[in-house]
């Protein structure tokens, strides 16, 4: 038997697309739905898988982050860093006062400077330390600056060169 | 099941309501099963893979971001299941053993439900295509997925899929034009019937 010419030969791509879309679909087994419904996990399983782990993470990470924040906030007052900083500040202020006043008037002004220096405040009180710093600045600005004296004696200028004899150029 | 229903269904699924899971099954299992029948051409394997698809869906519903529709997402899971199954079978001789056994039930397009000769012929030629061509034609024309949805399922660019679909369609058309009419070549496929 010779193969016959297909009647589809003159059919277009659009026809084929339409036929493919209209193809009857395979039958679905009747019991498949019930079998699939049996695969549904219990309510708690889905909820646990979805929410329990984030909740555990939140429960651990939240307090940890809060503890870290508190530690950072309280760190300067607990380890003495703040105290040391203030001590260094006071020492540098006193050195500045000593340098700023001439030696001749140092003893005379020392008393007044000391008198102007505010008393030691509670280091934990920021407003008191700021007030002390301002007082120190005020004392320093009010103090007279010593007259500057050049440490070397002025010498007559030395001749760096002499005149060139005229015959030397010839 | 429409795409508009997906957000509502998804939020309810994430709330962990079993009745919503049942709704998802009823809305999509036929489409998933048919897709797998076309891929596997084995109704038993398609049933197994459909079950595995939904089990995986329950496991991963928390990671579903909702960028694609639930139907596309389920197609993606089903396609991945089929690929995994193929890889496993290639590593073993299970396929040959199963084909030799009388329990192996291929999807037979000459089933009585398909009385249309043209439909049977189309199915036969579709089965004659290679796996890649058949997959894109099934997804686009039989499952009704857009190229964008196909791209999400097959993880390939849309342009490539358009070209592959066009190429597969031309090959199918050529094979239909070249073949002898169905009534001249026999009335029944030589493959086993559907159980």
Could you explain the architecture of this structure?
- The complex is a heterodimer of chains A (170) and B (195).
- Chain A has 170 residues and is mainly α.
- Chain A is built from 6 helices and no strands.
- In chain A, 60% of the residues lie in helices and 0% in strands.
- Chain A is elongated, with a radius of gyration of 48 Å.
- In chain A, helix 4 (81-100) runs parallel beside helix 6 (126-142).
- Chain A has helices at residues 13-21, 32-37, 43-78, 81-100, 103-116, 126-142.
- The model of chain A is unreliable at 1-6 (pLDDT under 50).
- Chain B has 195 residues and is mainly alpha-helical.
- Chain B has 10 helices and no strands.
- Chain B has helices at residues 6-14, 18-40, 43-60, 70-90, 94-100, 117-128, 131-142, 147-154, 158-178, 182-185.
- Chain B is globular and about 55 Å long.
- Chain B starts with 5 loop residues before the first helix and ends in a 10-residue tail after the last helix.
- Residues 182-195 of chain B have low confidence and may be disordered.
Set out the fold topology:
The complex is a heterodimer of chains A (170) and B (195).
Chain A: H1 13-21, H2 32-37, H3 43-78, H4 81-100, H5 103-116, H6 126-142
Helix pairs in contact in A: 4-6
Chain B: H1 6-14, H2 18-40, H3 43-60, H4 70-90, H5 94-100, H6 117-128, H7 131-142, H8 147-154, H9 158-178, H10 182-185
Helix pairs in contact in B: 2-3, 2-4, 3-4, 4-8, 7-9, 8-9
What brief labels describe this structure?
A: 170 residues; mainly alpha; disordered N terminus; B: 195 residues; 69% helix; disordered C terminus
- Please outline the major beta sheet of chain B: none
- Main structural class of chain A: mainly alpha
Uncertain segments of chain B: 182-195
DSSP summary, beta strand count of chain B: 0
- Characterize the largest beta sheet of chain A: strand count, sense, and whether it forms a barrel: none
Structural class of chain B: mainly alpha
CA radius of gyration of chain B = 18 Å
The average pLDDT value of chain A, as a whole number, equals 69
State the shape of chain B.
globular
- Approximately how much beta-strand content do the residues of chain B carry? under 5%
Portion in strands of chain A: under 5%
H and E string of chain A: HHHHHH
Q: How far is the first residue's CA from the last residue's CA of chain A?
A: 131 Å
The oligomeric state is heterodimer
- Number of DSSP helical runs of chain B: 10
Low-confidence stretches of chain A: 1-6
Q: What string gives the helices and strands of chain B in order?
A: HHHHHHHHHH
Rounded to the nearest angstrom, the distance between the terminal CA atoms of chain B is 29 Å
């Amino acid at each position: 038997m010779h193969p016959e010419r297909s009647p589809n030969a003159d059919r277009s791509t659009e026809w084929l697309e339409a036929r493919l879309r209209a193809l009857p679909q395979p039958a679905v087994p009747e019991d498949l739905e019930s079998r699939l419904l049996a695969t549904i996990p219990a309510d708690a399983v889905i909820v646990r898988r979805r929410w329990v782990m984030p909740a555990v993470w939140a429960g651990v990470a939240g307090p940890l982050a809060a503890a870290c924040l508190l530690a950072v906030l309280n760190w300067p007052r607990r380890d003495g860093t703040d105290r040391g900083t203030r001590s260094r500040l006071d020492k540098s202020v006193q050195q500045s006062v000593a340098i700023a006043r001439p030696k001749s008037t140092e003893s005379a002004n020392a008393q007044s400077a000391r008198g102007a220096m505010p008393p030691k405040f509670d280091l934990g009180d920021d407003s008191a330390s700021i007030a002390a710093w301002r007082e120190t600045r005020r004392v320093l600005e009010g103090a007279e600056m010593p007259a500057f004296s050049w440490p070397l004696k002025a010498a007559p200028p030395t001749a760096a060169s002499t005149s060139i004899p005229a015959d030397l150029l010839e | 099941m429409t795409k508009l229903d997906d957000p509502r269904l998804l939020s309810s699924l994430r709330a962990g309501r079993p009745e919503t899971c049942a709704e998802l099954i009823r809305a999509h299992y036929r489409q998933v099963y048919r897709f797998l029948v076309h891929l596997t051409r084995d109704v038993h394997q398609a049933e197994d893979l459909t079950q595995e698809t939904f089990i995986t869906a329950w496991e991963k519903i928390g990671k579903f971001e909702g960028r694609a529709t639930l139907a596309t997402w389920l197609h993606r899971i089903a396609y991945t299941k089929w690929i995994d199954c193929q890889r496993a079978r290639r590593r073993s001789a299970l396929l040959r053993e199963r084909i030799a056994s009388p329990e192996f039930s291929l999807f037979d397009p000459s089933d009585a439900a398909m009385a249309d000769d043209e439909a049977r012929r189309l199915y036969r030629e579709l089965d004659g295509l290679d796996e890649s061509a058949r997959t894109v034609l099934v997804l686009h024309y039989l499952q009704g997925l857009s190229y964008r949805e196909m791209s999400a399922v097959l993880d390939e660019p849309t342009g490539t899929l358009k070209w592959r679909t066009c190429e597969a369609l031309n090959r199918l058309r050529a094979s239909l034009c070249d073949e002898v009419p169905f009534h001249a070549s026999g009335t029944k496929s030589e493959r086993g019937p559907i159980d």
